[in-house]
Design brief:
With 123 residues, this protein is mostly beta strands. It is 3% helix and 32% strand. It has one domain: Thrombin, subunit H (Beta Barrel), CATH 2.40.10.480. The protein starts with 17 loop residues before the first strand and ends in a 6-residue tail after the last strand. InterPro entries: Quinoprotein_ADH-like_sf, WD40/YVTN_repeat-like_dom_sf.
């Protein structure tokens, strides 16, 4: 049960595929006409095709953490960027992170793992 999941129970979408034991489904009802429902959009500052988006996770306050090839960005529900954490060298992030106990966990293709504070984006 997603609500009994230790450390991630309060998050809307804590992993790339959702909650453990409930992958790829949610109790949230989404609108049918998705073209009319988007409240905001984001493009990489270097251009729409400057990087590859990897995945998104959503915390209990509906903030989105977008994993992009060069780093991770936290957005408010209204689309404002709260923080940005860039990886160096860029291009090693091809995995979606996970949320647990106020931290964002992930790994890079060069073998490094990271834990970021969800509030500040600091390691």
């Amino acid at each position: 049960r997603p609500d009994a999941e230790p450390g991630s129970a309060g998050y809307h979408w804590p992993r790339a595929r959702g909650h453990i034991g409930a992958y790829s489904w949610t109790n949230h009802t989404l609108p049918w006409d998705l073209h009319a429902s988007f409240a905001w959009k984001w493009s990489h500052p270097d251009g729409q095709y400057a990087s590859l988006t990897v995945g998104v996770v959503i915390d209990g306050e509906e903030n989105l953490y977008l994993s992009v090839q060069d780093g991770i960005r936290k957005f408010t529900p209204g689309g404002d960027v709260v923080w940005e954490h860039r990886f160096f060298p860029p291009g090693f992030n091809y995995n979606s992170p996970s949320l647990m106990d106020g931290l964002l966990f992930g790994s890079l293709t060069d073998g490094h793992v990271y834990a970021l504070n969800m509030t500040s984006g600091q390691e």
